[in-house]
Write a structure and sequence with these properties.
Elements (H helix, E strand, L loop, with lengths): L1 E6 L11 H4 L4 H11 L4 E6 L3 H11 L5 E5 L8 H9 L4 E5 L21 E4 L4 H10 L1
Parallel strand pairs: 1-2, 1-3, 3-4, 4-5
Helix pairs in contact: 3-4
Length: about 140
Amino acid sequence: MKLIIINGPNLNLLGKREPEIYGSDTFNAIFKNLQSKFPNVELSYYQSNIEGALIDKLHEVGFDYDGIILNAAAYTHTSVGIGDAVKAIETPVVEVHISNVHSREEFRHVSYIAANAKGVIFGFGIKGYELAIQSFL
Ligand code: DQA
């Protein structure tokens, strides 16, 4: 099983960024933990702050991998391009958000990805990434 986690803008700052919302673990630590929890999954990770780079990565992996776990962060709420890319590819996408986006500002209630995602997981903190992996197994 070949899965990739794709994280969008500002998620490179996990551990430092608003820890009361996003927790105090770095993504590096989160990723290592996931690798040890799922030794039989071929798990990779990509992060970018650039919308087009995220689209390029979706195109690159989207006809080959078994699953994509996508936290497009702020682009979730703005990017028709990322939404179209999720629709265009064949690999199923699970949308993840660390925070409960529906208990936050109204602009975070909109997702350009959800309609074409296999499912959406939000509000469970970083555990959401683990739940997303489990959903593919
Ligand atoms: C987020 C929620 C988004 O609204 C926000 O812009 C993020 C992170 C989350 O994981 O909770 O950067 O996707």
